[in-house]
Amino acid sequence: MVGGGRPRAGALLICLAATFIAAGGRARGGESAPGSLSEYQIKAAYLYYFSTYVDWPPESLSRTGEPLVIGVLGVDPFGAILDDTLRGKTINNRRFVVKRFQNIKEARDSHLLFISTSERDRLPSILKALEGAAVLTVGEIDQFASRGGQIAFRMEDKKVRFDINIAAVERARLKISAQLMKLGRIVEESGRQGG
């Protein structure tokens, strides 16, 4: 992003589209018109984008060349879209690996974890199990960020937007760039347990 000014949502969408196209992605399911991206193509591009604007603590990426693990917990809404979007991409000389999980204990090994809506009823226990782990949690469950998740997707005027829970990010010992915070809506937790 260009320094000095607030990035505009239109510029971000162009960046996301370029990211997806550069990954060799194609529309799936026949729903997208030529030149448009589906909701999950955009969300997959956002997951890549988020990873470029987050710093993990050194111990979570201790080995040189260790891949950055993007996990999906629960029913996977992306299908091949997420793999296609991240194929061939690297960040700080680390390649991306996409893993699907049904078990939260295994998912703790992710760097970025997308928590599917299938996990809605288990969300409190999932977030409790992730306490102390340097994992960026992203979800689309209603009020995900205000319930203790870190980044929540939401739809607004048929566009994908996101909320950020800065307190949850800080508890995971992650650092999110100011540029990313300007693009998201900052929310506070509604029922924080403990303190």
| CATH class assignment | Alpha Beta
CATH homologous superfamily assignment: Response regulator
Series of secondary-structure elements, N-terminal to C-terminal: HHEEHEEHEHEEEHEHE
Number of structurally distinct domains: 1
CATH architectural arrangement? 3-Layer(aba) Sandwich
- End-to-end span in angstroms? 36 Å
Uncertain regions: pLDDT < 50 for 5+ in a row? 1-10, 17-34
* Estimated structural class: alpha/beta
Mean pLDDT: 83
| Shape category | globular
Helix count from the secondary structure assignment: 7
Round the Cα radius of gyration to an integer and report it.
Answer: 16 Å
* Strand count: 10
Helix content class? 25-40%
**CATH topology category name:** Rossmann fold
Largest sheet: 8 strands, mixed
Provide the spatial order of strands within the biggest beta sheet: 3-4-2-5-6-7-8-10
Q: What percentage of amino acids are in beta strands?
A: 15-25%
In short:
By secondary structure, the protein is α/β, with parallel strands linked by helices. Helix content is 29%, strand content 22%.
Structure overview:
This protein is α/β, with parallel strands linked by helices. It has one domain: Response regulator (Rossmann fold), CATH 3.40.50.2300. The chain has helices at residues 9-22, 39-52, 81-86, 104-107, 123-129, 166-171, 178-183; strands spanning 54-55, 68-73, 90-91, 94-101, 112-115, 136-139, 151-156, 159-164, 175-176, 185-186. The strands form two sheets. It has an eight-stranded mixed β-sheet with strand order 3-4-2-5-6-7-8-10. A two-stranded antiparallel sheet has the order 1-9. Strand 5, helix 5 (123-129) and strand 6 (136-139) form a beta-alpha-beta unit.
